[in-house]
Amino acid sequence: MRVLHASLECYPLAKVGGLGDVVGSLPKYLTELGCTTEVIMPFFDNPRINKLPCENVYSDTLVLGSDSFDFTIKKVISVEFGFQIYLVDIKELLYRPNVYSYDDDTERFVAFQIAVLNWILYKDIKPDIIHCHDHHTGLIPFLVSQVDIYQSLIDIPTILTIHNAQYQGQFSYEKLDYIPQFDLHNIGLLDWDQCINPLATAIKCAWKVTTVSPSYMNELQGEANGLERLLSHEKEKCIGILNGIDHQIWNPETDPMIISNYGSKNIVSGRKKNKSWLCKEFGFDIDKPLVAFIGRLVYEKGADLLPDIVSETLQHLDINILILGSGDPEVESRLSELKERFPNRYNTYIGYDEKLSHMIYAGADFLLMPSRVEPCGLNQLYSLRYGLIPIVRRIGGLKDTVIDIGDDGFGICHDQVNVQDVYNSIKRGIEFYNDQKEYKKTQKEIVKIDHSWNNSANQYIELYKSLKQSQ
């Protein structure tokens, strides 16, 4: 079976969030299970992509309203990723240093999708499945099923995976002429709330819709940034499949980014060496519990509460707190100011550092995830893999993957997103930490939990097979 993943992100070539991790890992596991798996993504202007050995396999011109753009499809000549990667090179639109947040993102995303389908038309061997990821590729199911020039592709099943339904890619009907010719009687497939909504369009037109955890699928029918009614209506074709993590990359026994490698047998001594490095680097006392946050400093992650959480916690508990992340400038500023108030007990790194994130997973004592929205969450899966106890809100994938110690589990869970609930959870965590026998026993158990892509990839293969059989 030949599966083509269309995505704007794919780790390690382009990553902004969990989407990049998923598209960088799932295809590798699908390939190992016998699928011929390919990924097509934009050719961005970044050092990692620019260094790739490539060959041009297709060139054409696409029309976007009154404008036309030359584009090239490049095939990556490398076996390092474990699957084949293709790059869409549209110099005027895609060859830029960032993935998102440009004024012409609508034009960029639509052009990318048209280029992908024009290339598929040209290919001798067509994909058996086109797997689309988030709204940036959400028009593909519509284009395949409704646009005249793509009618030869109409029998190829399309799947949409929703990684985050908060972002939907809406744009005005003034840009309708970006869409190639189709029967205007079917314009309702593009519409949601009086505008063109690519995510809603994909939910309507894709053969199947998946989310990155079962709980997130259920939650979307009650809260989906305006798409609740649509998802409830389409629930028969929706399924939640929990994300996995790449155990080859995220492996404390072989991770080249950490100071001391370890497994379940030497987890205590190995983690202590990594904690020692963190404490020396950020001025902490190694004998105190270390609570850490890794992630984007945005509302969805509960990051706006972090300054008050840090303040409340350090006034009452003798612990250390370390925050790694970037995002809202006001939150960044408030977090930075707290360093003067709590010297040698609190520190922050504004930005993102891959090595530092690995070191935190390998050396901190607790990982904080007070999320308002968490479709799946990968940080808690990384933390479990490294023996780091997660403190999470029961939402989305966090609810599916972390069981509270009070329920014979291995994490600390709370239900609300407010300072007091998070503080109480941290306090419970420290009480758990003080029982070092039970704490260390739990650490040794959680590193053995299998959250690799094996199970999830098998579920996707079964889904692909069911679509092929239904043709």
Task: Explain what the structure shows.
This protein has helices at 18-32, 47-50, 105-122, 140-146, 198-205, 214-220, 228-233, 267-282, 306-316, 329-341, 354-363, 379-385, 396-401, 419-434, 436-446, 453-469; strands spanning 2-6, 36-42, 54-64, 67-76, 84-89, 129-133, 158-162, 208-211, 238-240, 290-297, 320-327, 346-350, 366-369, 389-393, 412-414. The protein has 471 residues and is of the alpha/beta class. It folds into 2 domains: 2-244 and 454-469, Rossmann fold (3-Layer(aba) Sandwich), CATH 3.40.50; 267-450, 3-Layer(aba) Sandwich (Rossmann fold), CATH 3.40.50.2000. Strands 3-4-5-2-1-6-7-8-9 form a 9-stranded mixed beta sheet, sandwiched between helices. A hairpin with a 7-residue loop joins strand 4 (67-76) and strand 5 (84-89). Helix 1 packs across helix 16 (453-469). The radius of gyration is 23 Å and the shape is globular.
What is the second-level CATH architecture of the largest domain? 3-Layer(aba) Sandwich
Question: Approximately how much beta-strand content do the residues carry?
Answer: 15-25%
Please work out how many helical segments DSSP would assign. 16
Number of strands: 15
How much helicity do the residues have? 25-40%
Query: What gap, in angstroms, lies between the N and C termini?
Result: 14 Å
Q: Strand sequence of the main sheet, in spatial order?
A: 3-4-5-2-1-6-7-8-9
**Main beta-sheet strand count, sense and barrel state:** 9 strands, mixed
Number of domains: 2
Mean pLDDT: 96
CATH superfamily of the largest domain: Glycogen Phosphorylase B
CATH topology of the largest domain: Rossmann fold
Family: Belongs to the glycosyltransferase 1 family. Bacterial/plant glycogen synthase subfamily.
Domain Starch synthase catalytic: 2-232
GO molecular function: alpha-1,4-glucan glucosyltransferase (ADP-glucose donor) activity; alpha-1,4-glucan glucosyltransferase (UDP-glucose donor) activity
Pfam family, one: Glyco_transf_5
